[in-house]
């Protein structure tokens, strides 16, 4: 209905077919024919050609009013498009469990914000189970987690492979018999040695020493139980908690041994009050990934976030 509106607007501005044709660099007959086709399509005249200069009809006034609104919408959208393409507009909601929301995501978000200050960033902290629901429902755009999710439903970029470790209070007597297996915080944090080259400890060496395990809805807790089962070891679990950092702090207090991911040590939680041991078995390694929903449109802002963190080394 508004196709060819530029011809109508030009004639209205110049109040003359000949002047409008000259300004548009087309012949007057061609311009007149275009206007006539528009009028025939609409079923009403836009201009009163009986006057000099010609006048816009009552119907034409309303048509031109709508044309100008369309031009404004197009101009506004063109401006939005330029901002969108230049990453000067957009928003991302990122989800992470309490550990990653506290340790890793703030640094990533700060780096992104420094590059794209106009993009709005939000952070949602919850359990892995809830975060998957939020990602599925579109309440978050991206999710950082160490739990493997359905590849049929989600896409992922792996950022790191994390080794699970035992954190044992230094004054536990068992440590004196396991000197060849020990890892210091400095060795892990600074990468002085390849963790994989250090022999993995046998869980049975810890006998009836007290353990703190994460509850079975947590990936670390699930993996800890799988590792014990694989080695036919019945851990003496005296504490059950929901958060990895809580378990780690219980170990720091000297009360129990915990299973932890090495990311904790790389992000400032290393302590000489603990001695660390590498665990063995398939469940002792896990990927840390950023996930998004497979069938959902990924915004340009989200794509830029993925590109940025894809260049990052977590540890």
From TrEMBL:
InterPro entries: HTH-type_LysR_regulators, LysR_HTH_N, LysR_subst-bd, WH-like_DNA-bd_sf, WH_DNA-bd_sf. SUPFAM superfamilies: Periplasmic binding protein-like II (SSF53850), Winged helix' DNA-binding domain (SSF46785). Residues 1-57 form the HTH lysR-type domain. The keyword Cytoplasm does not apply. It comes from Facklamia hominis CCUG 36813. It comes from the Bacteria. The keyword DNA-binding applies. This is HTH lysR-type domain-containing protein. One of its GO terms (molecular function) is DNA-binding transcription factor activity. Keywords: DNA-binding, Transcription, Transcription regulation. Belongs to the LysR transcriptional regulatory family. GO terms for cellular component: cytosol. It holds the Pfam family LysR_substrate.
């Amino acid at each position: 209905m508004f196709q060819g509106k530029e011809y109508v607007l030009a004639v209205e501005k110049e109040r003359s077919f000949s002047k409008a044709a000259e300004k548009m660099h087309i012949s007057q007959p061609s311009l007149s024919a275009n206007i006539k086709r528009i009028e025939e399509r609409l079923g009403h005249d836009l201009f009163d050609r009986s006057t000099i200069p010609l006048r816009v009809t009552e119907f034409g006034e309303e048509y031109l009013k709508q044309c100008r609104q369309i031009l404004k919408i197009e101009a506004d959208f063109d401006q939005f498009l330029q901002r969108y393409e230049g990453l000067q507009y957009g928003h991302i909601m990122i989800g992470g469990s309490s550990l990653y929301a506290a340790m890793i995501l703030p640094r990533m978000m700060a780096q992104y914000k420094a590059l794209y200050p106009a993009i709005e960033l939000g952070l949602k902290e919850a359990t892995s189970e809830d975060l998957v629901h939020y990602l599925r429902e579109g309440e978050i755009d991206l999710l950082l987690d160490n739990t493997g999710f359905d590849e049929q439903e989600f896409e992922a970029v792996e950022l790191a492979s994390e080794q699970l470790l035992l954190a044992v209070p230094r004054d536990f007597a068992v440590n004196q018999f396991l000197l060849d297996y020990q890892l210091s915080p400095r060795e892990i944090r600074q990468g002085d040695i390849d963790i994989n080259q250090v022999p993995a400890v046998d869980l049975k060496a810890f006998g009836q020493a007290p353990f703190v395990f994460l509850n079975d809805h947590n990936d670390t807790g699930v993996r800890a139980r799988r590792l014990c089962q694989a080695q036919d070891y019945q851990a003496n679990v005296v504490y059950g908690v929901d958060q990895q950092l809580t378990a780690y702090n219980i170990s720091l207090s000297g009360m129990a041994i915990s299973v932890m991911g090495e990311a904790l040590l790389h992000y400032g939680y290393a302590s000489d009050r603990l001695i660390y041991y590498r665990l063995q078995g398939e469940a002792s390694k896990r990927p840390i990934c950023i996930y998004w929903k497979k069938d959902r449109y990924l915004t340009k802002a989200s794509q830029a976030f993925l590109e940025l963190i894809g260049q990052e080394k977590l540890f």
